[in-house]
Task: structure prediction
Amino acid sequence: MIQRIQSIYLFLCMVTTGALPFLFSLWTLENGDIYFFMSSMVYVIFFGLSTSSSILSILNFKKRKQQFVLNRLNIILNLILLGLFVYRTLNLSGETLVSKNGIGIYLPILAILLLVLANRAIKKDEDLVKSVDRLR
Result:
């Protein structure tokens, strides 16, 4: 059902990847320019895929195994996004552009944490259903 704890975790993940990138910047460049995720189409695509995967996972509350798989794919998407952020930070920080990291660069870590908690709750539900089926 929608009121289960994993749905709350997935909703928080959806907010983390769907709304918070608009509020928090990724970088502040040396000349004072603020770099949001909308400046690069790759970041927009990955944040959009992560958000849509969270929504789809919330709507598949009756299919726990499919929800579990969608969450794992979402974790992989967020790991790729985090890798892109780390690559950009390490690659460009030594060149002429000096940047300060914003809070937005840590959003994929929060999303991964919420997805792991959701997967743990889904696994717990699945184990509960299996144990009840054994008793019948």
